[in-house]
Amino acid sequence: xxxxxxxxxxxxxxxxxxxxxxxxxxxxxxxxxxxxxxxxxxxxxxxxxxxxxxxxxxxxxxxxxxxxxxxxxxxxxxxxxxxxxxxxxxxxxxxxxxxxxxxxxxxxxxxxxxxxxxxxxxxxxxxxxxxxxxxxxxxxxxxxxxxxxxxxxxxxxxxxxxxxxxxxxxxxxxxxxxxxxxxxx
Length: 185
Prior knowledge:
Elements: E1 2-3, E2 12-15, E3 18-29, E4 35-43, E5 49-55, E6 59-62, E7 66-76, E8 79-84, E9 90-94, H1 95-98, E10 110-116, E11 119-124, E12 128-135, E13 149-154, E14 159-163, E15 171-175, E16 180-184
């Protein structure tokens, strides 16, 4: 059990019958009254977010989550299959759990998986991934680095804004936290 005042972004707890990760928190001290903690949580199974207020003395049930290196193997219906690189166990992870990370997954890619009670509850892709551009409008003569941008479809199906000089077949770096173009390879 942890006190509500010990919440930090990334802390994982069990409450209301589900597994939740703290996204943000704010400690509030109001005049004569007791201190309060206002925290925003994301459900690790459904992706829903909720904001809760706790008195400073309240306690929450924390959970032990093991972070393991897993390899993405292939999609399977409405799920994705990953393999633990140490034990070679395979996990079928629902699409809702993978979330936005699915836009950056390539077969054979190594990602971090949070494992709780024998199942993956969160997938974290590398900060920057290298993906090939498969579709984008052609550049026009005179395009420069500081010019505008155009949409580009990547090999995984993700669409990002790229500079005008990027062409089909180029391999680019994409920041998975923001979904933005980070450079050419």
